[in-house]
Amino acid sequence: MGAIEWVTEGDNYECSLSKETQKLAKEELREDKNTRDQALEQIRNWIKLNPRIQNCRLDAQFLLRFLRCKKFNVPMAEEAIERYLLLRQVYHFAFNHLDITEPTMEELLSLGYLFAAPGRDIKGRRVIIARPGVFDPHKYTNADMCRIHAITYECLMEDEENQVRGFVHFADGAGVSFPHLTLFTPKEAVRIVKNGERTIPMRHKEVHAINTHPSLKFALDFGMSLISEKIKKRVRIYTSLEEAINHKMDTSMLPKEYGGTMPMKEMIELWRKELIEMRPTLLTHDKMRVCLELYSEKAREGAISALKQGFGCSDIGSSDSTMYGITGSFRKLEVD
C-alpha cells in the first residue's frame, strides 16, 4: 500500500499564544507543553492507524482545536475528530466547498446574515453576530444556511487564540417568522444542534439574543431543550436592544446599529477579508475522507445514539450496504 499524502503533514508545533492566553489554557484546559506534545503524538498515531480515516489534516493547529475543546481528554478529542470527518462527508452538500466567493455565500455575507466583529472583547473573545431575519427562506436553502455557518466557524477555529478564549454570540431575531422555522424539520434540528455541539470544537462562552418575538416562544423553548445545561446557563434572551442594554450587555463590540462604534457595513468588509484569506485552507478540507462503509447506517445518517456508541466495528451491520451517503437535502434524514 502506497504512502498516504495527508491533507497536511504533522509539524513541530511552536506555541503562538500570548503569555496571558497560555496561562488561561493551563488553568482552564490543562494545557502545557508536555500535555500538548504527548496528546498531539497520540492523536496523529491514532489517525494513521485508524482504518476508517482515509485522509485528514495532521497539523497541530487543526488537531488542537479538538484537544482544547475537550480539555486534552484524548479519547474524547479522537471521537470528536472522527464524528467531524464523518458528518462533513455525509452532509457534503452543506459542509463541502466552503467558498465565500460563491454567489449565494457572497450575498448572505453582504446582507449581514452572519459575521464576526473585528477585534476582541475585554476577555479576548471574538464576537459572532447573527441576523437570521435577513435570510430569505423562500430564496435560500437549509444547505445554504449550513454552509455560511460552516465557513464562518471554520475560519474562526483556525485561530489558536479563539480555540482557547472561545466566542460570544449575538443574535437579532427581528424579521424571523414561521417560514424560517420550516427550513428544517424538528428531527433535522435535533440532529444538527446535537451533532453541532458535540462535533464543532468551539467554546461558546456567552449567547445573547434580542428581538425574540413572543409568537416564536415554542420554537425557542424547543431549541433550548436541545442544548446542554452548560450552554443553557450562558444564554440570555431579551425582547429588545434596550432591555439588553439595561441588563448591562456589552455593546462595545457590536455594530454601530446595535450600540457599538463601527458601522455594520465596515465590519462585514473587514470580515470578508479574513474569509478570503482563509479560503484556500477551507477548500483543502474537501480532501478529508472517511471510509463510509465502515460505519453503521445510523451513524452515516448522523443518528446521535449511533455516534454515542463509539465507532467500533461492532457498529457495522450486515444490512448496511444500502446507503453510503446522503445527497440532495436534509429532508431524507430520519431520526432515532
From TrEMBL:
- Entry's InterPro entries? CRAL-TRIO_dom, CRAL-TRIO_dom_sf, CRAL/TRIO_N_dom, CRAL/TRIO_N_dom_sf
Q: Which residues form the CRAL-TRIO domain?
A: 101-266
The entry's cellular-component GO terms read: membrane
Q: Which GO terms describe its molecular function?
A: phosphatidylinositol bisphosphate binding
Top-level taxon of origin:
Eukaryota
PANTHER family per the UniProt record, alphabetical: ALPHA-TOCOPHEROL TRANSFER PROTEIN-RELATED, CRAL-TRIO DOMAIN-CONTAINING PROTEIN DDB_G0278031
Q: What is this protein called?
A: CRAL-TRIO domain-containing protein
Q: What is the lineage of its organism?
A: Eukaryota, Metazoa, Ecdysozoa, Arthropoda, Hexapoda
